[in-house]
Design a protein that fits this description.
By secondary structure, the protein is mostly helical. The chain has nine helices and three strands; from the N terminus they run αααβββαααααα. A three-stranded antiparallel β-sheet has the order 1-2-3. Strand 1 (57-58) and strand 2 form a beta hairpin. Helix 1 crosses helix 5 (130-144), helix 2 runs antiparallel to helix 4 and helix 2 crosses helix 6. The protein is globular.
Length: 202
């Protein structure tokens, strides 16, 4: 017969405000800041951010459309099979994204993908992949003095989800915003963090 082994179900760990500010303060270009803010304030997965097309950004309506695509040259996937709309009412995120597209994104690029390799090297205009995102994130963390192993680009999504839940967003609403197919995935974020327990106890 099959044997079930109990494993530790770890609660997603969000970054605190000091870590977030330290990380954002160490980013070297507008592109990197736009990437981080979309995950931090929009709750997008790394693959969803890297797979964004220019047409997916509605600046006037202040929203991002996350679409299911499988044609990224570097194998980036959005994971979710359903299309969803993510509203972005934090003005900093869309303003930073707009600045990147208008001023820093290579104007000669023919791809519709938003986030590309810049600079003057031979890889200029190539779509940014998982490896590139992981490298720039790790370097920013190192400069910021953040050395915890659990701090990855996906931790920014955890931070967003935790903030939304603790701010009063309902579970079903949070599930739709994050693009979870199952409520069980969202329920990981509904475990109230220790600081909230302490604050309410006091």
């Amino acid at each position: 017969r099959s044997v079930r082994v109990k494993t530790i179900q770890r609660v997603p760990r969000p970054l605190d405000d000091a870590q977030v500010q330290a990380l954002l303060g160490q980013l070297r270009c507008v592109r990197d800041r736009a990437l981080m803010l979309l995950m931090l304030q929009g709750g997008l997965r790394p693959g969803e951010v890297l797979g964004l097309h220019l047409e997916d950004v509605a600046y006037g309506r202040r929203r991002i459309v996350v679409r299911q695509r499988t044609d990224h040259p570097k194998g980036v996937r959005s994971k979710s099979r359903t299309e969803r709309v993510v509203d972005l009412h934090e003005p900093e995120t869309l303003a930073t994204l707009s600045t990147y597209v208008l001023q820093e994104r290579p104007p000669e690029a023919e791809t519709p993908l938003v986030f590309l390799v810049g600079g003057h090297g031979r890889r200029r205009c190539e779509p940014l992949g998982y490896d590139g995102l992981a490298r720039l994130f790790a370097r920013a963390c190192q400069r910021a003095g953040i050395r915890e192993a659990w701090v990855t680009p996906h931790a920014l999504r955890h931070t967003h989800a935790t903030r939304m839940w603790e701010g009063g967003m309902r579970e079903l609403t949070l599930q739709k915003r994050l693009g979870h197919a199952s409520p069980e995935s969202t329920r990981l974020y509904t475990r109230v963090s220790d600081p909230v327990v302490v604050a309410e106890y006091r």
